[in-house]
Design brief:
The chain is an alpha+beta fold and 633 residues long. The protein has 2 domains: 232 residues, no CATH class; 353 residues, no CATH class. 49% of the residues lie in helices and 15% in strands. It contains 17 helices and 15 strands. Strands 1, 2, 3, 5, 6 and 9 form a 6-stranded antiparallel sheet that branches. Strands 4-15-12-13 form a 4-stranded mixed sheet. A hairpin with a 5-residue loop joins strand 7 and strand 8. The radius of gyration is 30 Å and the shape is elongated.
């Protein structure tokens, strides 16, 4: 079975990579613009790697749209992620260049000057959107062969510190906007936007000019002096200007996101994934070979002993505990609840990845990924109720209602409580990333009004269906477990078992953490799906190996050990996230650090349920298979 899964994983690699880089946006139609059509520029938010607390764009005194600030309709995912999209005063007309245009003049007071200076010192970046594409700053570099290479940084800086030490500070009041477009008159009319580049500059404009025109410092030259903010001033006039340039591009609309994916080094990503894949496949192949050879030898020996009834030979090893191996574990309800919630997370993960690989959760559908995660997690409550009830029934449990209620409420309440506390703290900071109260009520309504009833429905079907009887009879009196060697102690074996699954995903975890906390784009779901398949195989195999060694040492308390062995990888995920926090991030505020640790705890908890459930079912079917293959009197 493991070899078949490995073969299937290898066969779909090319298809997954193709889906990641080429197949794009089912159900999303491109917008075609005709000359002089207005292309709307929307503003999103200001983000900083130092605080992780996004700021509303208009929290700083930027130019306001003449028609007033209007919010776009955000979906559930955008609201949970803190995305707020608003209109802007910038006017872009299709294929119409604008050498330099005055946007507005703002009279900054002392408090506003300090707010700008603080935003610059915290390295806040501005995020805009045009035709669902985010603004990006283009960076050009030279590779080892002397060829020019470029990459994108998300957004553009509010300003920069000219001299180290915090003085003086310049603000970017001029932006050069470049819109890349593609047109094919044979296939369609008009043009399609395929790129959105912004280069921000600080310019000390000459404020003496005729209204309706622009100053002689616009467009700015490379020698133009920077606009320096002075926090000692009571007032300071700032002129905001912009230029627009339209450039034809060979990139087609279907592949316009490829440039944004180059924000991370794709070669390093490829090398890391392939390296991890080869190491894990080698290790799992070796483990599978050792297990099959050893286990086949044990089964063959026990069958020979059963056939040769004249020789009285004493049973040893894992067969010796056949009368206790299917004895119910301690705290059976908690184990059933944990496995049920793990099945819920697993089903949500698989379905989300399938839709993501097929392109339905593309970056153009802002918030679609988070919306899909929440909705699928709610709907998959029926799976958690079904499997929790089945396992609890297998353990001969009788408190059905309590088990189902615990399944529906225990782990979701932990996650919701952490999220609610963090959101309350963010609200106290008066930042832009707080989830609105009505959205929290919506999530609470989905949980209590949809997920809980579906959990009871799944439990109803799970209880009606008969459970599989164990292949061997359970003894009335439990057998005494002999003293275990130090490396087979529960804590040691569990911690050892969690290392390999973590090793399968820690490289991909780096890119995921960078996407979340360093505002990098991550839509390489082909890579992620391959790593997920490796994770499943690794969790299954390491749990089976550790379970086999445990049974051979005559320790039959394998139920919880199977769940915790692969689930222990979540501990390493949490520890690596803490290491990432201190080594890669530059967070300075306590609230931001608390936010990071809170969300990391949620991630580690869900990963614990996911990997623990994979190990539990792998070990369960392994134990059933080996004890069904021998003859027991």
């Amino acid at each position: 079975m493991a070899r078949l899964l490995l073969l299937r994983a290898v066969l779909v690699v090319l298809a997954l990579v193709y889906a990641t880089h080429a197949f794009y946006l089912p159900g999303v139609a491109p917008i075609e613009y005709y000359p002089t059509d207005r292309v709307y520029l929307s503003v999103n938010q200001l983000t900083s790697v130092h605080t992780q607390l996004p700021m509303r764009y208009y929290a700083l005194p930027f130019c306001l749209p003449p028609e007033g600030i209007e919010d776009d309709r955000e979906n559930l995912g955008e609201l949970l992620l803190g995305d707020r999209i608003e209109n802007s005063p910038y006017i872009l007309l299709a294929k119409t260049a604008e050498p330099c245009k005055v946007l507005c003049e703002v009279q900054l007071n002392k408090e506003q000057i300090k707010a700008f200076i603080e935003a610059v010192e915290q390295e806040y970046r501005v995020h805009w959107i045009v035709d669902s594409l985010p603004a990006a700053t283009k960076k050009t570099m030279t590779d080892m062969n002397g060829l020019a290479q470029y990459s994108y940084d998300a957004g553009f800086p509010v300003g920069e510190i000219v001299i180290s030490g915090g003085k003086p500070t310049s603000m970017n009041n001029h932006v050069d906007i470049t819109i890349l477009y593609h047109e094919e008159p044979v296939d369609y009319q008009g043009i399609r936007v395929v790129g959105f580049e912004v280069h921000a500059r600080s310019v000390a404009h000459n404020l003496e000019f005729t209204k309706g025109s622009h100053p002689d410092t616009c467009p700015p030259s490379p020698q133009s002096p920077a606009l320096v903010l002075d926090k000692e001033k009571d007032e300071q006039r700032v002129l905001f200007t912009y230029s627009v340039k339209w450039e034809a591009s060979e990139h087609k609309w279907a592949s316009r996101w490829d440039s944004y994916l180059l924000m991370t080094d794709d070669q390093i990503h490829w090398f890391s994934i392939i390296n991890s894949l080869m190491i894990v496949l080698f290790l799992t192949g070796m483990v599978a070979m050792i297990m099959m050879r050893t286990l086949h030898a044990d089964v063959r020996r026990y069958r020979e002993m059963a056939e040769n009834a004249e020789e009285a030979q004493e049973e040893t090893g894992w067969k010796l505990v056949h009368g206790d191996v299917f004895r119910a574990p301690s705290h059976p309800m908690l184990l059933a609840v944990s496995v049920g919630n793990g099945v819920q997370v697993f089903a949500m993960t698989v379905i989300t990845m399938i839709f993501a690989v097929l392109g339905f959760l593309s970056p153009a559908n802002r918030g679609a990924l988070m919306t899909a995660v929440v909705v699928l997690l709610v709907v998959m409550g029926i799976c958690s109720g079904f499997y929790s009830a089945r396992i609890y029934k297998m353990f001969k449990g009788k408190a059905w209602t309590k088990n189902t209620l615990t399944t529906a409420l225990l782990y979701p309440s932990i996650v919701f409580s952490i999220f609610f506390i963090l959101n309350t703290i963010i609200m106290g900071q008066k930042t832009y990333g707080a989830v609105p109260f009505l959205t929290l009520l919506e999530v609470l309504g989905l949980w209590l009004g949809v997920s809980v009833p579906l959990t009871f429905l799944g439990a109803y079907f799970g209880l009606k269906k008969p459970v599989e009887e164990p292949p061997v009879r359970v003894n009335q009196i439990p057998r005494q477990i002999p003293e275990q060697v130090w490396y087979m102690k529960p804590i040691v074996s569990i911690l050892m078992g969690g290392i390999l699954p973590f090793g399968a995903i820690f490289i991909e975890l780096f890119f995921i953490l960078s996407s979340i906390w360093l505002h990098k784009f991550y839509y390489l779901f082909g890579f992620l799906f391959i790593v997920f398949v490796i994770l499943i195989l690794t969790c299954a195999e390491i749990t089976i190996v550790m379970c086999y060694f445990q049974l051979c040492s005559e320790d039959y308390h394998w139920w919880w050990r199977a769940f915790l062995t692969s689930g222990a990888s979540a501990l390493y995920v949490f520890l690596y996230s803490v290491f990432y926090f201190f080594s890669r991030l530059q967070i300075t505020k306590f609230v931001s650090a608390m936010l990071y640790m809170g969300y990391t705890t949620i991630m580690a908890l869900e990963f614990f349920l996911l990997t623990g459930t994979i190990g539990f079912f792998a070990c369960y079917y392994f134990v059933r298979q080996i004890y069904a293959s021998i003859k027991v009197d």
